Amino acid sequence: ICFEPFKQNIRIPKLLPCGHSFCNDCITALKFNSICICKCPICRHSFPLRYDTKFPTNYSLLERISSSFMLILNHISYHFI
User: Fold this and answer.
1) Alpha-carbon gap, residue 63 to 71, rounded angstroms
2) pLDDT above 70 (res 70)
3) Are 11 and 27 in contact (CB under 8 A)?
4) Strands 21-23 and 46-49
5) 3-state DSSP helix/strand/coil percent for the chain, to nearest 5?
6) Fewer CB within 10 Å: N-end or C-end of the chain?
7) Which has the minimum average pLDDT: 7-16, 28-37, 39-48, 57-66?
8) If 0-12 CB within 10 Å is exposed, 13-18 middle and 19+ buried, where does residue 27 land?
9) Distances (CA, A) of 12 to 17, 59, 74, 79
10) Which pTM does this prediction carry?
11) DSSP track, 28-50
């Protein structure tokens, strides 16, 4: 797991069955050509992972990240204008 910041176009946050989110690239790196049982790095919840498993995008988290980024930009522009 990379622990890099999530972004809308790269490192898209995907929801595991337990509710925790990790980037698409890290989850894809875990996929094999056969079924494997993986565990969430945070809560250790087990779930099957196949090469064709698709996890939903965490749009709620993406929205929060986008909103936080806009607040930071507004704060910076306020202090430098």
Assistant:
1) 12
2) no
3) no
4) unpaired
5) 35, 20, 45
6) C
7) 28-37
8) buried
9) 16, 9, 24, 31
10) 0.70
11) HHH--SS-EEEE-TTT--EEEE-
